[in-house]
Amino acid sequence: MEESIIVALITGLCAVVGQFIIAKGNKKKEDIERTVRDAVLQEKLSVLEAKIDEHNGYAKRFEEVSVSLAELRTELKDMRR
C-alpha cells in the first residue's frame, strides 16, 4: 500500500476511536445528570406526598367538625323548644 493510504487509514481509525471515547464520556455524564435529576424529582414528590397527607388530615378533621357542628345545631334547636 502507498504511504498516503496507510496514513489515511490510521487517521480514520484515530478519528473513530476518538469519537467513541467522547461518546462514552458524554453518556456517562448524561447518566450522572439523569440520576441527580431523578433524585431531585423523588425528593420533590416526597415533599408533595407529605403535604397531601397533611391536607388529608385537615380534610378528615373538617369532616369531624362538620358532623359536630350539625349535632350542636340539632341540640341547640332541641334546647330552644
Would you kindly provide a brief summary of this structure?
The protein is mostly helical and 81 residues long. It has one helix at residues 3-80.
What would the keywords be for this entry?
rod-shaped; single chain; 1 helix; mainly alpha; 81 residues
Overall pLDDT metric: 90
Largest sheet: none
Report the count of strand segments: 0
List the uncertain runs: none
* Percentage of residues in strands: under 5%
Class by alpha and beta content: mainly alpha
Report the end-to-end length measured between terminal Cα atoms.
116 Å
**Number of helices in the DSSP assignment:** 1
What sequence of helices (H) and strands (E) makes up the elements? Answer: H
Radius of gyration: 35 Å
| General form | rod-shaped
Determine the fraction of residues in helical runs and give it as a percent range.
over 70%
Layout of helices and strands, plus pairs?
Elements: H1 3-80
Written overview of the protein:
- The longest helix has 78 residues, at 3-80.
- The chain has one helix spanning 3-80.
- The chain is rod-shaped, with a radius of gyration of 35 Å.
- The mean pLDDT is 90.
- The chain has 1 helix and no strands.
- The protein is an all-alpha fold.
